[in-house]
Structures are given as structure tokens and as C-alpha cells.
């Protein structure tokens, strides 16, 4: 067995659509496939304004800029996340304030947010880990009371829901990733979603190198010009064509991943708290509908996790751990503070192992992985 952690989806139409772009005269973005993807995302996420971006990181960068961050403003987020979540706001010279996570979902503990707020706080950034939603009602109520912006890092949460509503649609800005490790892939890519015409106009200018080129292409102005600061966050049509081949089959991909997730859970249930208690399994709150993005288990401690990863590697299975908490890193110590105590962030991060999960993962591969884990403990 040689089982990778991830494989990007390749659909029957992937090569066909990419070839259509290669045969056209339009390689740059905002062509037919970009528009198809944007329209699909707008419908799926229930937000009118959607812009494809060159990465999930760039979607976060754009959101941070559009929040009108000023040097010294504070932004609250979990330390258990990828560097892009912090870098986006650090790039606007904000101070990053970390809070502890909940051990059940690995999401930021909403009960700790209010005590981290100061007169300098500007934004709250919930990260929907493994496609499981944060408690958005509590977070949005806090934001409303203190007049703060909310930016959802929904990089892993495409087509996941919170109380029946799509994650990424529940705040001022939602940021998605279409990196090769995500449910839908552009290789590198992402999307920014937002509410309101004013936000969209500013985002279009930012995304198009500081120009009003989008208005020009819609025929709203006779010529475009440089009107504000901006950069190039517009992905190629080649990337959009690859993404579109997956979005056409989105339900199939998601249901396939959820079926794999469920099979892992059923096969490993006996090792969990309901059985022999060797491991912990993922928790999905009743208010969440997940997208099958990630299946993880938690070992007893760091030493046991290290030995289990090595055992899986010996069996030909790639099963990595995930984030090293940002507050423990050199940049985290330099640019951020951890508000309150680190009760769970480090401890839980050192226990977590991600199992292979991708579209097309076979029954045999899942059972082989589960059997290898069972053999380690039993």
C-alpha cells in the first residue's frame, strides 16, 4: 500500500475545459469559467458578491484590507490555524490576539472572545476547523455589541453549514481556499465573499491592481484608470476551468467524502470513548452540517501520536499532524499575544492526526488504514 494523504479531484471534464481555455484567446481571469464558478459559488453560499482569488491567503489579505485596519488595531483569532490567517492582518500592521480553542471542535472558544476585547479591537476571525462551524451566533452578537467586523476563515468549510446557513456567508467577509488539499481545487486559488455593493466595488478595485477595470468590462465606464491601491488577485482562466469541472460535480464530491468520513468513524468507533477509549474521534455539533473535509483522531499525547504516525508510515499510509500553534512560533512571539491561558491549544494540537481523505478514496484503503490503527493499539 502506498496511500497519500491527499489527491486533488480530476473529473472527466477537467482536461476538456482546460483545453478549451488553451484553444481560446483568453487565458487571464474573469472569463467564462471564472464567471461560471463565481455564479455557482454565489448560489451555493447564498451571497451575491463573490470574487475568485489567486489563493485563500489572498482572499484573507483582501478581507483584512477591506476591514480598514490601522496600525495598532487588534484582531482576535485562534492560535490553532494556518499562518495566512494571521499574516493577512499582520500585513495591515495589526496586533494579533490569540484565544484558546475548544477541545471538542478545535475551533476558537467563543466564551473567551469578550475578555480579549480592548478599545483597540477591530476584527474577530473565526476559523471553521475541519469544516465544522464556530458558534457564529455568539460571535456575531459580540461583534454587534462592540461594533467589530467579523471575517470568517472558511478555507476548509465550502458547503458546510451552521444552523442551515452556509459557512462563509454569516459575517462581513468569508474567505475560502481551493488549494490542492481542499474539497475543490484550483491547485492554488480561493474566493472572497462579501455583502453590499460598496464592499464589492472596493474589492474589485483592490483585486484589479487598483483600477476600475471591472466597471470598464461591464460597460459602466468608457475607459479604466488607476483609482486606488491594489494588487493582482485575479486567477487565470486555466485555474477556473479546472475548478469548474469539480463544481459541476460538487454534490458527488462532497457526498463521496462524507461517506468516507462516516466509514472511518464506524470502523474506529470501537477505539473511541464509546469503546476502549484509546483515541478520540471528531465531534460534529448538532448545529453543524459538515462537508467531509477532514477526518482526524486524537492520540493520548505527543509521544503516542509520534509512534502512531511512524507505524502508519511503515504501513505505507501518509497521516500527518496539523498546525503547530502560532503563538509558539518565532513570528507569533514577535507579533502576537495569547490572551488568557493556553489550556487546550497546544495540548490538543499535539494529539491530533489527520487520516487520508480525498475524493475517490476506496473502501479498501479506508479499512486498511483503520486496521493499521487498530493493530497499533490492540
Give the arrangement of secondary structure elements.
Layout: H1 14-23, H2 32-45, E1 49-53, H3 56-66, E2 74-78, H4 83-90, E3 95-99, E4 121-124, H5 136-146, E5 149-153, E6 161-162, E7 165-166, E8 173-177, E9 190-194, H6 197-207, H7 213-217, H8 237-247, H9 250-268, E10 288-289, E11 296-298, H10 302-314, H11 330-335, E12 336-338, H12 345-349, E13 352-354, H13 363-377
Parallel strand pairs: 2-3, 2-4, 3-12, 4-5, 5-8
Antiparallel strand pairs: 1-9, 6-7, 6-10, 8-9, 11-13
Describe this structure in words.
With 378 residues, this protein is an alpha/beta fold. It has 13 helices and 13 strands. The protein folds into 2 domains: 14-247, Aspartate Aminotransferase, domain 2; 250-377, Aspartate Aminotransferase, domain 1, CATH 3.90.1150.10. Helix content is 37%, strand content 13%. Strand 6 and strand 7 form a beta hairpin. The longest helix has 19 residues, at 250-268.
Amino acid at each position: 500500500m502506498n496511500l497519500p494523504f491527499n489527491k486533488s479531484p480530476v473529473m472527466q471534464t477537467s482536461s476538456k475545459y482546460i483545453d478549451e481555455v488553451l484553444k481560446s484567446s483568453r487565458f487571464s481571469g474573469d472569463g467564462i469559467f471564472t464567471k461560471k464558478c463565481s455564479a455557482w459559488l454565489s448560489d451555493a453560499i447564498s451571497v451575491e458578491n463573490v470574487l475568485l482569488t489567486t489563493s485563500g491567503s489572498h482572499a484573507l489579505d483582501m478581507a483584512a484590507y477591506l476591514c480598514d485596519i490601522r496600525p495598532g488595531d487588534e484582531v482576535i483569532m485562534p492560535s490553532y490555524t494556518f499562518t495566512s490567517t494571521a499574516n493577512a492582518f499582520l500585513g495591515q500592521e495589526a496586533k494579533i490576539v490569540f484565544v484558546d480553542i475548544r477541545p471538542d471542535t478545535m475551533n476558537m472558544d467563543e466564551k473567551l472572545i469578550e475578555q480579549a476585547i480592548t478599545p483597540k479591537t477591530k476584527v474577530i476571525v473565526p476559523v471553521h476547523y475541519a469544516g465544522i462551524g464556530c458558534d457564529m451566533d455568539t460571535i456575531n452578537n459580540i461583534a454587534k455589541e462592540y461594533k467589530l467586523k467579523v471575517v470568517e476563515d472558511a478555507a476548509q468549510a465550502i458547503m458546510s453549514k451552521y444552523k442551515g446557513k452556509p459557512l462563509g456567508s454569516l459575517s462581513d467577509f468569508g474567505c475560502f481556499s481551493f488549494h490542492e488539499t481542499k474539497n475543490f481545487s484550483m491547485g492554488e486559488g480561493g474566493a472572497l465573499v462579501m455583502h453590499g455593493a460598496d464592499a464589492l466595488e472596493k474589492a474589485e478595485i483592490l483585486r484589479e491592481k487598483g483600477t476600475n477595470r471591472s466597471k470598464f468590462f461591464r460597460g459602466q465606464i468608457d475607459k479604466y484608470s488607476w483609482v486606488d491601491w491594489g494588487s493582482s488577485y485575479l486567477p487565470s482562466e486555466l485555474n477556473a476551468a479546472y475548478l469548474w469541472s469539480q463544481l459541476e460535480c460538487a454534490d458527488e464530491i462532497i457526498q463521496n467524502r462524507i461517506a468516507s468520513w462516516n466509514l472511518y468513524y464506524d470502523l474506529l468507533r470501537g477505539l473511541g470513548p464509546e469503546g476502549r477509549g484509546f483515541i478520540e474521534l471528531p465531534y460534529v455539533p448538532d448545529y453543524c452540517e459538515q462537508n467531509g473535509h477532514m477526518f482526524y483522531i486524537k492520540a493520548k499525547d505527543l509521544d503516542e501520536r509520534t509512534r502512531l504516525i511512524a507505524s502508519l508510515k511503515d504501513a505505507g499510509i501518509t497521516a500527518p499532524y496539523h498546525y503547530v500553534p502560532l503563538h509558539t512560533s518565532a513570528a507569533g512571539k514577535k507579533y502576537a499575544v495569547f490572551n488568557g491561558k493556553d489550556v487546550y491549544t497546544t495540548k490538543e494540537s499535539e494529539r491530533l492526526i489527520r487520516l487520508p481523505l480525498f475524493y475517490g478514496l476506496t473502501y479498501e484503503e479506508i479499512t486498511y488504514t483503520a486496521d493499521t490503527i487498530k493493530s497499533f493499539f490492540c
